[in-house]
Design goal:
single chain, 112 residues, mainly alpha, two-stranded parallel sheet, 5 helices, 4 strands, DNA-binding
Amino acid sequence: METGNCYTASMNIPNLDHILLQQLNGIPQGKVVTYGDLAKMAGAPNHARYVGSFLKKLPKDTHLPWHRVINSQGKISFPQDSEEFNEQKKRLEQDGIVLLNGKVNLKLYRFC
DNA sequence: TGTATGACCCCAA
DNA sequence: GTTGGGGCCATAC
């Protein structure tokens, strides 16, 4: 199906995890989205925090572009002294996304 | 059933 | 542009 990106809905979500997976897979290389955006795309405007829990549940060796998900401030939700931070930063740079002062320019790289 | 925690968001100062 | 406080939902104990 043609990815229902940028779709907002306020209805009950039967399998939010499944939808989040689809939306996550639908993020093209070189683009990023915020937790709230991903949740909104899945039809759950206020489930931004759930997205974080969802990503945390993902296996470490997953091939999903979890690194393209950042907070609304354009920053990585990990402490700079964390391994995850460097890993995500490295992956973003691989996608052609440049981090300025540890922040991503959402104006340029924000999907949707 | 109630409390505490989390890869968060929005708004105001 | 940055920081802090309050609020949102779901999971774990």
